[in-house]
Design a protein that fits this description.
- By secondary structure, the chain is of the alpha/beta class.
- The chain folds into two domains: about 25-220, Rossmann fold (3-Layer(aba) Sandwich), CATH 3.40.50.300; about 295-405, Orthogonal Bundle (Arc Repressor Mutant, subunit A), CATH 1.10.10.
- The chain is built from 18 helices and nine strands.
- The protein has helices spanning about 25-35, 50-60, 75-100, 105-120, 130-150, 160-165, 165-180, 195-205, 225-235, 245-255, 260-270, 280-300, 305-320, 325-335, 340-345, 370-380, 395-400, 405; strands at about 40-45, 65-70, 150-155, 185-195, 215-220, 240, 275, 355-360, 360-365.
- The longest helix is centred in the C-terminal third of the chain and has 24 residues, at about 280-300.
- The model is unreliable at about 120-130 (pLDDT under 50).
Length: about 400
C-alpha cells in the first residue's frame, strides 16, 4: 500500500514553483508579460493575500532570473543596499554551477558584490548619509547581471522605504532608484506591499519620484468557487472527501484569505484520516489551531490593562459591524469616550504587540484566528464585557456552532 502523501496545505511561507498553488490566471499572465517586456508592475493587496507566492511561483522557474528582496522592517538606506546585495549574491551563487564555462560576467558581478559588502556594514538603527554614487553602484550590478540573463527584480513591501526611513533619506533613495531604473532596459521591476495607502501614494502622488511609473494591479481574494475546488482537490490527493458543509464552514471561519484558508485546511488534514470529512474533523482541527493561537492571545491579554482587554473582546464581537468610535462600541466595551477607545487601541497598532491594524476608518485584527480565539473567550464568559455581548452579528452567529468545542 503506497504511503499517504504529505499534507499538501502550506501556510506562512512562500510557495515556490513546485508547491501546490491555486491558479490565478489573469495575475500570472500579467506577471509573465511584465517580465517578458521589462515592464514595471505594482501588486497592491492586503496582508497574506499571496502576493509574494504569486510572484515566486510564477517567475522563479522562468527563463530569466528572479531577484526577490523583502524590505519588511527596513531600517536605513544602507540596510536597503545590504538586502539587495545579499539577495543578489545568493542568487548568483546558486547559478554558478550552470555558468562556470560561460563568459565571466557572473564571476565579475560576484566579486563586485563581495567588495561592496565589505564596505557596507549592516545598519539596524539609524540611517547614515549615503552618497548617490554608492546606490548607483548597487543598481549598476543589477544592470550587469541583466546583460547575462534577463532579470526581474521583486521589491516586496516597497512602501517600507517611506514608512520607516527618515523622510529626507527616503526621498533621496527613491530619486536615485527611479533614475537608475529608467536606464535598465533588460530588467523588469515588480513592487508589492500591504500598506495600501502608502504604497499607492508612491505611484499615484505627483510629489513622488515614482509618480505614474508603473501599472497597478489589485491582488484580492481568489474567487471562492476556484479556491473551493483547489481545497477539495488537495484533500482528494490523500483520499479525503470533504463535505460541502465543511467547505462552507472553512470560508466562514477563515474568510477569503488564501493563507488563512490553507492554515485551517492544514489542521483539518492533520486531524483526519482518509475517508469522508465532516463536522467532527473540522471541530478537532479548530480546537488544535486555536490552542496554538492561544499562546499569543494569552500573552497579549495578560499584559493588557482592563480597558485594553475590553476593546479587544469588543472588537472580536463587533469588527464587522461597529464603528469603533461610535456609541454602540462604547457601550459594548464600557469605555466612556472615543479618546479612551483610541488610547486603549494604541499599544495593539504598533510595536511588538501589533495585533490590530487600521484599514481606512476601521480597526481590525491582523490575524483572523486570533480574533476567533478572542471571540471564543468572550462567548464562553460574557462577563468579560460590562454589558455582556448583546446582539450577535450575523458572522458571530455563523461561527458560534463551530466554536462549541472551545465553549464547554
Amino acid at each position: 500500500m503506497p504511503p499517504e502523501p504529505a499534507n499538501p496545505f502550506i501556510f506562512g511561507q512562500v510557495l515556490g514553483p513546485t508547491a501546490p498553488f491555486c491558479p490565478r490566471p489573469a495575475l500570472e499572465t500579467a506577471l509573465r508579460e511584465a517580465a517578458r517586456s521589462r515592464q514595471r508592475l505594482v501588486l497592491l493587496g492586503d496582508r497574506r493575500m499571496g502576493k509574494t507566492s504569486l510572484v515566486t511561483h510564477t517567475l522563479a522557474d522562468g527563463e530569466g532570473l528572479l531577484l526577490a528582496v523583502d524590505l519588511l522592517g527596513l531600517a536605513s538606506v544602507e540596510d536597503f543596499m545590504d538586502r539587495v546585495l545579499a539577495r543578489l549574491e545568493s542568487l548568483l551563487a546558486s547559478e554558478r554551477p550552470l555558468t562556470k564555462h560561460l563568459p565571466p560576467a557572473v564571476r565579475e558581478a560576484l566579486a563586485a558584490v563581495t567588495s561592496l559588502r565589505v564596505d557596507l556594514p549592516f545598519v539596524q538603527v539609524e540611517a547614515k548619509p549615503t552618497k548617490a554614487s554608492t546606490v548607483m553602484q548597487v543598481m549598476g550590478l543589477l544592470a550587469r547581471v541583466s546583460r547575462w540573463r534577463p532579470l526581474t527584480v521583486f521589491l516586496d513591501e516597497f512602501q517600507e522605504i517611506v514608512d520607516r526611513i527618515d523622510a529626507q533619506a527616503a526621498t533621496h533613495l527613491l530619486g536615485v532608484l527611479r533614475g537608475e531604473m529608467q536606464r535598465h532596459d533588460r530588467i523588469a521591476y515588480v513592487f508589492a506591499g500591504s500598506a495600501r495607502n502608502s504604497l499607492a501614494d508612491l505611484f499615484t502622488s505627483s510629489q513622488s519620484p515614482f509618480y505614474q511609473s508603473a501599472r497597478i494591479l489589485e491582488v484580492g481574494p481568489i474567487p471562492r468557487p476556484e479556491m473551493a475546488r483547489f481545497i477539495a482537490g488537495q484533500f482528494a490527493r490523500g483520499g479525503r472527501k470533504i463535505d460541502d458543509s465543511v467547505l462552507t464552514a472553512l470560508f466562514s471561519l477563515a474568510g477569503d484569505n488564501p493563507n488563512d484558508l490553507q492554515q485551517l485546511a492544514y489542521h483539518v488534514w492533520a486531524r483526519s484520516a482518509p475517508g469522508r470529512l465532516g463536522a467532527e474533523e473540522l471541530r478537532a482541527a479548530l480546537v488544535t489551531l486555536l490552542a496554538e493561537i492561544g499562546r499569543a492571545g494569552e500573552r497579549v491579554t495578560e499584559d493588557a490593562t482592563p480597558s485594553q482587554r475590553r476593546v479587544l473582546f469588543a472588537l472580536a464581537l463587533a469588527e464587522d459591524e461597529q464603528d469603533v468610535f461610535g456609541s454602540g462600541f462604547l457601550e459594548l466595551s464600557g469605555l466612556k469616550s472615543p479618546q479612551a477607545v483610541s488610547k486603549a487601541f494604541t499599544p495593539f497598532l504598533q510595536g511588538g504587540l501589533a495585533v490590530l491594524e487600521k484599514q481606512g476608518g476601521k480597526v481590525r485584527f491582523r490575524e483572523r484566528f486570533l480574533r476567533l480565539w478572542m471571540l471564543s473567550r468572550v462567548l464562553r464568559n460574557p462577563r468579560l464585557l460590562p454589558a455582556g455581548i448583546g446582539r450577535e452579528s450575523p458572522w458571530v452567529q455563523v461561527v458560534r456552532p463551530h466554536l462549541a468545542g472551545l465553549l464547554e
